[in-house]
Amino acid sequence: FQHLEKSAVLQEARVFNETPINPRKCAHILTKILYLINQGEHLGVMEATESFFAMTKLFQSNDPTLRRMCYLTIKEMSSISEDVIIVTSSLTKDMTGKDDNYRGPAVRALCQITDSTMLQAIERYMKQAIVDKVPSVSSSALVSSLHLLKTSFDIVKRWVNEAQEAASSDNIMVQYHALGLLYHVRKNDRLAVNKMLSKFMRHGLKSPFAYCMMIRVASKLLEEEAGSHDSPLFDFIENCLRNKHEMVVYEAASAIVNLPSCTAKELAPAVSVLQLFCSSPKAALRYAAVRTLNKVAMKHPSAVTACNLDLENLVTDSNRSIATLAITTLLKTGSESSIDRLMKQISSFMSEISDEFKVVVVQAISALCQKYPRKHAVLMNFLFTMLREEGGFEYKRAIVDCIISIIEENSESKETGLSHLCEFIEDCEFTVLATRILHLLGQEGPKTNNPSKYIRFIYNRVVLEHEEVRAGNVGLIHLLFEFLNPLQVKEGFDATLSYMFMTVLEPLLGTPLPRYNAVLGSQKILPCYR
Predict the structure, then answer these.
(1) DSSP state of 80
(2) Ranges for the Clathrin/coatomer adaptor adaptin-like N-terminal domain (predicted)?
(3) So what's the pLDDT on residue 383?
(4) Is the backbone peptide bond immediately before 20 cis, with ω within 30 degrees of 0?
(5) Alpha-carbon separation of residue 337 from 304, 342, 395 (angstroms)
(6) Model confidence over 318-376: pLDDT tens digits?
């Protein structure tokens, strides 16, 4: 469908008026129209209406593929064509017909073109469809009712009895959709929602999707209560940890983990379930488990300690996303003695993961630096190695933020950290990061034992960088000179400083400066510079 032209496709649509109808050709043209619409091609009202009316003649054909394409086209063109209600009788006929393959799609298409003023005319058909014995028809009616709630709430809420009947269906999707409709009808009535949950908790459900929805509703109610978790709702979620369906078990574990003010005792059963998932042969389950454990480790690292052995096994997982999350979780829960070993394991696959996961690793290392300040040297070297590798802005910014936080919190690491950052700005493609590091040099450099060693890095940026970085450096040189003892400056360094002022600062400031004097040093220059 590349290089399709709207005018050519609309011209082809005139084939719909021909007799006899060619189902294969017409279905192909409808596919082209749908492709254009979904690619964002604008159809004028007249163009869309003309094609829509021509398409209605295709209902004369009994070809199942063509009929399904007609339903899809009606749904897509209902918002841009005029007088779409012309197909109401055809859709109603299909909806109440004997061919089950047509009935479900016809319900969805009919509800798409029906507004609140016309809904009462088809209300009887909708009620019948909701309780239909054919699952596809019932699900179509329930989902369509859910969409109609937005515009016709008062009418749809009268269908609650039919939805209740559908909720007892043996089909898992029908039960799920019925529960969804019942909840959205009653969601503004807390008492009604509680009664609905109590009823289904007593009688049980057959659909794992319905269980997942009930867990989410129950956890939402618990969050709104913001009190004790000693309630039937929490007991229900905890009981779901023993469900036979894996998705229900994970949903329950995730709900417990995300509850506010959850204690370690309440977390324990959820963590145990997630620990079992860590050894699952399914990659999706392993990923879900380790991702959730990673979240738990942020607030309750001690609760995840029991899973450390399982997490260490995941470090060598073939799925690098799982391995990364396992490592970062171990960094939050591991002991000080395990840091060196974990750093070696991380470095073995850092080049194979995306920047998004690299940022997660950096954030975990940052938390580790706060937890074990004596390990700042090992962690700083690892961060510097990461800083020299290729990466995007967010990744580099995360590393720079981490190094700066280490410098601010640990005075012993200041000079090492500043040296690493100075090396980084020598070949830094991100102006924002270079400016920030230079600003840090201006603040922390004068407080070091030998501030003069940072002059070279600042001077290089003044000479080589573009305007934003150069402008920021003017003030930094002043800050560093405030702490330099002019009498201790060597003659060779005098010449460098004098050259810097003449060739760089004079053009930037737009005024001539007195030449540097080996005896007076910065005392003679700085008054003019200020």
Answers:
(1) T
(2) 6-472
(3) 82
(4) yes
(5) 18, 10, 27
(6) 888 888 888 888 888 877 777 777 777 777 777 777 778 788 888 888 877 777 777 77
Rounded Cα distance between 365 and 332, Å, is 8
Which residues lie below 8 Å from residue 199, measured CB to CB, with a gap of 6+? none
Nearest to 450 by CA among 408, 409, 422: 422
Cβ contacts of residue 344 below 8 Å, gap of 6+? Answer: none
Q: What gap in Å lies between CA 332 and CA 317, rounded to an integer?
A: 19
List domains and CATH numbers for the chain: 266-334 (1.25.10)
Q: What is the pLDDT of residues 440-492, one digit of tens each?
A: 777 777 777 777 776 676 666 555 555 555 555 555 555 555 545 443 444 44
For tokens 């690098």, name the residue.
320
Q: How far apart are CA 45 and CA 49, in angstroms?
A: 6
The CA-CA-CA angle for residues 36, 37, 40, to 5°, reads 90
| 503 DSSP 8-state letter | I
With contact defined as beta carbons under 8 Å apart, do 447 and 408 qualify? Answer: no
Decide: 464 and 429 in contact? Cβ < 8 Å. no
Nearest to 10 by CA among 58, 39, 42, 40: 42
Place of tokens 């850092």: 350
Contact 348, 367 (CB under 8 A): no
pTM reported for the whole predicted model: 0.72
Q: Pinpoint the alpha helices (H) of 78-206.
A: 88-95, 100-113, 123-130, 135-148, 153-156, 160-166, 172-186, 190-203
Question: How far from the centroid of its chain's Cα atoms is residue 25's Cα?
Answer: 42
DSSP-derived 3-state class of residue 78: coil
Report how far residue 80's alpha carbon sits from residue 383's, in angstroms, rounded to the nearest whole number. Answer: 56
46-64 mean pLDDT: 89
